[in-house]
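User: I'm curious whether this sequence folds into something compact or stays loose and floppy. Could you predict its structure so I can see for myself?
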Amino acid sequence: MATNPVKIANSVLAALPHKDYQGLIPSLEQVSLEFGETMYEPGAEIRHVYFPEDSLISLLTLVEGHLALEVGLIGREGILGVSLALGVSISPVRALVQGNGTALRMSTARFMKEMQRSPALQKEIFLYTHALMAQVTQTAACNRFHVVEARLARWLLMTRDRVKSDEFRLTQEFLAHMLGVRRVGVTKAASALQSRKMISYSRGNIKILDLKNLEAASCPCYQIVSDMHDGNKA
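Assistant: Here's the prediction. I'll summarize afterward.
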């Protein structure tokens, strides 16, 4: 079956045959996501799934009810709400918008019906679920074993891949939550990358200046996760 010839921002939807995608259109609503907006809370019912277009969503696990650590990152390559495909309608994580942009939203009830109707959609969702599980697993190991500077480089590269831009806005406080370190640790790591002219960082605005060397400074986890997503596209 030929995939959809129309240019579609979200990779999961773009991988569908044209007929299957056309069948989804009436159920999809484009919504704007704002930085800092909470999409899901742990233990809460999932009411919608989201197919990000140019937005970015962090998956956070909470410790002692208030300390947060990022375990996953979702952009145009994926979908927020994949646990529904496994029969689980309660979110295990907090989903927080990290980058402004748009997403296509679908109700949980409609998503479940479309999963049953379209084997192609089911296949793409399962492939992405596998890739997301691999990302979460790799991120857990990365947070435990790799130094902050290499983890920051990885995280900036993953963000770049998903927003398709070398410039984005990230505050030190937000980065500290994402990396599970104190703000002073983020400052030190960002300053090190900036002194080597890999990035510029001022008042929360980050610009990647030297992609090649930033990739070299990153831990191997970046390439492992990237290869996993690329393998799903093959």
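Summary: DSSP finds nine helices and ten strands in the chain. Strands lie at 29-33, 38-40, 48-52, 56-63, 67-74, 94-99, 101-107, 167-169, 199-202, 205-208.
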